[in-house]
What we know:
The protein has 96 residues and is an all-beta fold. The protein contains no helices and six strands. The chain has a domain of 63 residues. The strands form three sheets. Strands 1-2 form a two-stranded antiparallel sheet. The protein starts with 41 loop residues before the first strand and ends in a 13-residue tail after the last strand.
Amino acid sequence: MSHSSNSLTLRISSSISETDPAYQFWGVKDLNIFAKMCSPKCDTCFGPSSGECITCANGYFLWGNLCVKECDDLYYPEKRMCVQECPVGTFENIDK
Length: 96
């Protein structure tokens, strides 16, 4: 799960068919929640190390799951991502 805020709300619900409150048992066992900060290069991230980026911070381009300062090949400025070829409907800007 990814999120872009500094808070997390966890809601737990149960669908118990028993109507007698004396027999309505349920519980949560071994619930662990771990939070890790994304790399400063990432806007949003995932993974155990939180270094696998989904989107990048300003000044960085997404290359796979990493955020890099410059692209080796082409880049798609509107999405701030590196590409190996131009997406359908776009063209390389040769006036660099």
